[in-house]
Amino acid sequence: VPRILRIALDTPLRQLFDYRLPPGVDAARLTPGMRVRVPFGRRRMVGVLIETADRSSLPSQKLKAALEVLDEASVIDEGLLAFVKWAADYYRHPFGEVLAAALPAGIRTGKTQIAPAPLHPAPPETNAAEAGPEPTAAQAMALEEIVGGLGRYGCYLLHGVTGSGKTEVYLRAIQQVLARGQQALVLVPEIGLTPQVLARFQARFDRPLAVMHSALGDRARLRAWQQARSGEAAIVIGTRSAVFAPLARPGLIVVDEEHDPSYKQQEGFRYSARDLAVVRARQQDVPVVLGSATPSLETLENARARRYQRLVLPERPGEARHPTLRLVDMRRHAVQDGLATPTLTSIEGHLRDGGQVLVYLNRRGYAPTLFCPGCGWTAPCNHCDARLTVHLRSRALRCHHCGFRQALPFGCPTCSHEVKPVGQGTERVEETLASRFPEAPLVRIDRDTVRRRGDMQAVLERVTSGEARILLGTQMLTKGHDFPDVTLVVVVNADQGLFSVDFRASERLAQTIVQVAGRAGRASRPGEVLIQSEFPEHPLLQSLLTAGYDGFAATALAERQAAHWPPFARLALLRADAREAQAALDFLQAAADAAAPGRSVRLLGPVPAAMARRAGYHRAQLLLESGSRGALHGFLDEWLPAIEVLPSARGVRWSLDVDPADLY
Ligand SMILES: [Zn+2]
Ligand SMILES: [Zn+2]
Q1: How far away, in angstroms, is 372 Cα from ligand 1 center?
Q2: Residue 196 — pLDDT band, cuts 50, 70, 90?
């Protein structure tokens, strides 16, 4: 008879905790996934039962009894529990913390009682609330593959240019899933879950929809979780963490804009929701669809190797036209506050012809630098290796990395000379455009103008109604929104991503340019895209111009393979930060020394991070690289326990990132 409970607790310790059965509880009625209240140090905690055992390795006098079992049945089913376990194991993160991240607060804390998950087949979906347009031939072919694959695992890359109708394929596939009495899980990027997207799903299906995103309050989150778990919600739509949504009858998983960086969680439990969605689909034996106009290089390589099936949607004949891309050489033309003469002329022409103009600049504020011409001083952040950004309207200098803020000085603090802002942010370009085109109403979309969810809706209405003629903004406006009347897109500065130390920077830049270009010419009118650069001969820009995203991707994949970078290698990054610069480096050096020598995993570093100081902490990193995922994980198995007991670990904050998205 088992008398020991193995419990996962929300602590940073990489272990399960053994407890004796609470008095009067019958071990036979316990199942993994039930919540158990236990004493932990001086506190009481609620954990999740993972397994029962006959004996513990702890001496019996050290073993405490659990206080109570909270549930009659598991709150988290076996399939989901196995998935969470897989994720904790793969990312080498403490199981209890991963489990806590996967559960809503009310469940985690034990406050909410929960009914056993009902096993009723749901009534099949019969009629859609709204029919939707007839699928094109390409949509019908893609749909046939996906629907033909329902009921078993398969991973599909739905590769369709902007405007080719990927969403229509999702909607029709989901319709088939609902007809089978199953649920669909739809993941969207952080920024993509707009009222427009929800409205489209609601209009199509006459069934409850559970929505999950980071801005939800505890109560709303709990309710969505329960609707997903009970099967009441036919469709669960959410951002990153919705990949852990409980599903009574999973039938299909969709990851929209699969290349989007927001699928990667960058703090705490670091995971890729896109990658986990594929794992979950495999475990639950359902198909998963990864959709994008600009697929990540990882996904393209998986498709090339036939691990994923690629379904292509070409642009719709007669409906959307590929915009013409043109480079504007910033060295050859007069430039007024970041906009070259040919750019200004084009804007003028498109406005005159009744078109809308979209101006993209991924830098908010007025100017990235405050400079003194008298002595060469620039305003630094005292907490980061970074310059302060000038925000003219709020008369402030702000650090975009740590949030530090101070009043805008009148003169140079060292020589009292008059200081001036250098470079362009959206606030400054807004000023330039407003003075140059005073007749054209302008909306600016960035984190300074759009703070709450409702703000975005209001701004978008001004655009779709045609009242606003110029849209200016950061990447907030490049995603998911349809602007059918935009005929000209201007990329103010393409050079930020060209020479970055990050190996993913060029991929991100290409994706951004193609995505932002996709906003132009979506109706009957062809669009025009101007890309301003001081390096128009750069191979990345040239390959995009002549061969499109596919051409760029082929070149970039060849480069990655030659350099032995992902997807042709596996990476893990050990990061450390500390108040003292040397402490972080010392810890990483000790970690490197603790590694058993072997040829299958290479250690690169330790080195200071690209931004060596941030928010008062000195940051450094040690990169691990291997040709094999198995070899890397085998190495981590031995290495992590050795790192955890290093004396130098005490003075630093450290974290491990498996498959890091950014190397800084
Ligand atoms: Zn000065
Ligand atoms: Zn700072």
Answers
A1: 5
A2: confident
